[in-house]
Batch of 3 targets.
Target 1
Amino acid sequence: EIVLTQSPGTLSLSPGERATLSCRASQSVSSSYLAWYQQKPGQAPRLLIYGASSRATGIPDRFSGSGSGTDFTLTISRLEPEDFAVYYCQQYGSSVLFGGGTKVEIK
Amino acid sequence: EVQLVESGGGLVQPGGSLRLSCAASGFTFSNYWMSWVRQAPGKGLEWVANIKEDGSEKYYVDSVKGRFTISRDNAKNSLYLQMNGLRAGDTAVYYCARGRWLQYFYYFDYWGQGTLVTVSS
């Protein structure tokens, strides 16, 4: 079974900085088969990226996704105050699988 | 506007049962796969179950097979999760989510606010 490992566990950055989040799969997955979600405390997850690099409706262009095979990246070009949250990657093979999450916190 | 509103959560004893509901609006419910995803307190997301548009296909995570049943009523725009034989490990916020397919890739484009299920004596 594929395992998704997200790193780092916590990312401490200041507003305006660039955030780079990693999601690594234990086996190669299709280049399109990855999504990213944002979750703020007490809220439901929100879809950011699907198909590895396509932004969901209403998602600002400071969010971008890239990668293929086993290594995927979510980049937030310039952190806004509302971007501090937990981010999850998700893959679909024989079933739905989520990574463990990366918390982006204010430094 | 797409809306998903869960209900039915609460406190239940180990071995007990609970039925969760999700009321959908703002889209043609019968055209979409639907899912349940849960999140234990302070933990990450875990997919629970999927159901096809017409209810003819259902899939579950191994840990709930034989105990949970996903179903839907397209006439009522509603999704359900019947949970039997509940265990402490089932304690979580349960989210209803709309599923989308991109070729063979399944993901979730809208989520409800969740309903908390607590299994404890």
Note: The CA atoms of residues 44 and 84 of chain B lie 23 Å apart.
Target 2
Amino acid sequence: GQNIDQPTEMTATEGAIVQINCTYQTSGFNGLFWYQQHAGEAPTFLSYNVLDGLEEKGRFSSFLSRSKGYSYLLLKELQMKDSASYLCAVIDSNYQLIWGAGTKLIIKP
Amino acid sequence: GAVVSQHPSWVICKSGTSVKIECRSLDFQATTMFWYRQFPKQSLMLMATSNEGSKATYEQGVEKDKFLINHASLTLSTLTVTSAHPEDSSFYICSARGQGDHEQYFGPGTRLTVT
């Protein structure tokens, strides 16, 4: 079966750095997304990785290792508004998007 | 660019009635549209995938006669919840993808409450 694992919840302090991990086992791989979702709102795109390595975009970076079936989202200089759920999703060989359950990130002052 | 709208944003209906939700791609042609449902504190659950001009492909466990999906044009898809029940109350989100694109662009979602 297809499976994406990410922690259910994480807590971090304002101004700090947090890394949210995602591991996946899917039938094929055509890319990995990270989305941010605030409560009661639709997901918003953060990053897309299809090749191994680190993609940096401002305070957010995303890393991918295809051989390990592993990705992480790194958030720097955390702000209170970063409190949200972070969803990892993988495009499989049929170009279907397989979703993780999401990681709820709680930022404390 | 790549804006997707949904209408209505929220709707309250009585049990047994039908509700139609519209999903529009405003500035691109969406060859594929996806409908998701999300219950509180849970992740997105894909309900169906529709390609323009074709019948929708429903995920296992989703009743196609209850959740009618139409994707008649490259910019509009509709989801009709027929004979709604309180357990259908949820957050319904559509997303759209253009030809050759890998990213799905999400609409803002529709919150349905069935009383």
Note: The longest strand of chain A covers residues 18-25.
Target 3
Amino acid sequence: GQNIDQPTEMTATEGAIVQINCTYQTSGFNGLFWYQQHAGEAPTFLSYNVLDGLEEKGRFSSFLSRSKGYSYLLLKELQMKDSASYLCAAMDSNYQLIWGAGTKLIIKP
Amino acid sequence: DVKVTQSSRYLVKRTGEKVFLECVQDMDHENMFWYRQDPGLGLRLIYFSYDVKMKEKGDIPEGYSVSREKKERFSLILESASTNQTSMYLCASSHSGEVWANVLTFGAGSRLTVL
């Protein structure tokens, strides 16, 4: 079957760094997406990885290891506004997204 | 600069009622989607459409139907609402293309409660 695993909840301190992990098992693989969803709001696209390695975009970076079925989202210099849920989604062989349940990130001052 | 608009933010309906959820996008996107979001579960695709008058079943189409008469509008219909359809419904749109199709712009959601 197809499955995405990510932690349910994480807590971090303002100004610190946090890494949100995601492991996936899909029928074929065509890339890994991360979306951010603030409470009560729409999810918004953060990143897409299809090749192994780290892609940096400002304070946010996303990493992919295809051989390990593993990705992480790295958030640096955490700000209170980063408190949100982070959704991991893998694209299968049919280019359909398989979604994880999301990781709720709580930032404390 | 609202891009995907869902007509109702909160709805309360009774079991057996017919429910319409409307979604409009102003980005000239080819693809439109309806998802439901429930606590502890990943987003689940109900239906999607890649063109006007075209529709494809997602993972959980039972109990739902859709309509896309115009490119910018995608409606989700619950013919006879049931309590297990109480959920947050998210509409999304995207451009065509294998990867671009999954760079989704979501609406703010419609929270439906069925009593």
Note: The radius of gyration of chain A is 13 Å.
